[in-house]
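Hello Y.,

Per our agreement to keep a running log of every chain we model this quarter, I'm adding this entry. I've kept the format consistent with earlier entries: sequence first, then predicted structure.
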Amino acid sequence: MTGPARRLALALAVLQVVVLAAASATAARRWVAAPLDGDDAYVLLVLGSDEGPPRPGSARTGRADGFHLLVVAPAHDAVSILSFPRDSYVAVPGAGRTKINASLVRGPETALATAELVSGLEVDDWILTGFHGLIAAVDELGGVTVDVEQRLYDPVGASSDLQPGVQRLDGWQALTYTRDRKSRSDGDIGRTESHARLLQAGHEQVRAEVAGAADLMRLVSLIRRHTESSIPADRLVRLTALALEIPPAQVVRQVVPGRIGSAGGASVIHLTPAAEALFAQLRLTGRLAAGDAAS
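Predicted structure for the entry above:
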């Protein structure tokens, strides 16, 4: 779809939201759920690239520092975020067994195929951002409020020395929060969890702050400007509207279980049988149990 055609589809989708919302809340909810109808969950691969501005290269062919499956339950009433440590040692189509972050080097389509191969889930779409996209999106939201667990330091950031406690992070600080692993007592596992924490905090915040079709339009536009994705324009509007309906308490997050090991002299994370149990649960029910949530 060309740029003008995509913008037209987006405008028409938002217009439908306005008309349906004016008609009845029930009709609006039916329209929002339309692309997710059926007995299956909707699965979105969320990727964070380590390349693209301000670094050289393209976000589409960097390594995936962030690799998350966001699963909307079949009843559209809950979301599960399953986060893979970037050093997870898995089979990547065309590359053999390697770290999961290397799957993005071959493009987001290969990353999606990797997610399907590893989890056994059918992944519907992918969405991707890089350093610049994260910084710009968080700044445009006016910051995101997060409870920083410990002091974090990342020399890449202009405001890179974070102290513990609840605080509203600007874009550079959010990058520090999601990038720094050397300061963390739990290393890359903690960094992986920080990505999901930021996603969850952002969801809770925009759900509280966004009201009405005009705000929805601005939020969808923000997402489109600061990401790349395979999501059709009308589906993006529906998914964004649906996200605003799901209560934060119905968002469950979990880091894929693994154990530290080595392969070819490199430090990797081998997924454990507990990981397959989570994949099986998602395949069967489309949701993680609340007891699986990370603390």
